[in-house]
Design a protein that fits this description.
Order of helices and strands: HHHHHHHHHH
Mean pLDDT: 93
Shape: elongated
Helix content: over 70%
Structural class: mainly alpha
Oligomer: single chain
Largest sheet: none
Number of helices: 10
Length: about 180
């Protein structure tokens, strides 16, 4: 949660130890290094935030319903959920070159997993005639990913969720 709330590059092992009551040797025994700890945090985040995103994209629903579900998911009340605003994955992508090798490689793998999920969703919508075949699938996947990343940055900056939802609805309406 500290990596998510503060920044994946601005939280030390010492701070993690203070917050958790763990010893540095214990953290190193469990995770091997700072890089191992960050990679483990990213894996936990995948389960918490990326798997629900994948579920929305894989659900048997119309393209329009999926876009509405993406907006709702992105603009959930983070306070009620007890989680920080923004997105740890977006933050780690932005800090990719400042992360360790294992974490950086996992960031790259997850980025491809996200793009692949968007591409399958878009191709499915195209096959149903719900999404224009004119836009290349890869470009559309990058577009949706960029809109989500922008929304997460706005959330971290304190933009209210209603405004973010409006921005996303307009942005998503471009691709039909």
């Amino acid at each position: 949660m500290q990596y998510w709330d503060v920044s994946p590059t601005d939280v030390s092992i010492g701070e993690i130890c203070k917050l958790t009551g763990a010893s540095k040797p214990g953290v190193y025994r469990e995770f091997g290094s700072d890089d191992g700890l960050k990679r483990a945090a990213l894996e936990t985040y995948r389960s918490l935030a990326l798997l629900p995103l994948f579920d929305i994209l894989r659900r048997d629903q119309s393209f329009a319903a999926a876009k509405a579900a993406l907006v709702a998911f992105t603009t959930q009340d983070r306070v009620a959920l007890g989680v920080p605003s923004g997105c740890l994955f977006v933050a780690m992508r932005a800090q990719r070159d400042n992360l360790g090798l294992a974490t950086g490689e996992r960031v790259d793998q997850l980025r491809q997993e996200v793009l692949d999920a968007y591409m399958v969703w878009i191709e499915t919508a195209k096959s149903k005639g719900e999404c224009s075949a004119k836009i290349p699938t890869g470009a559309a996947a990058l577009y949706f990913d960029a809109q989500n990343g922008g929304a997460m940055r706005m959330q971290k900056e304190g933009v209210d969720n209603a405004t973010i939802a409006t921005v996303l609805r307009y942005a998503f309406a471009i691709i039909d």
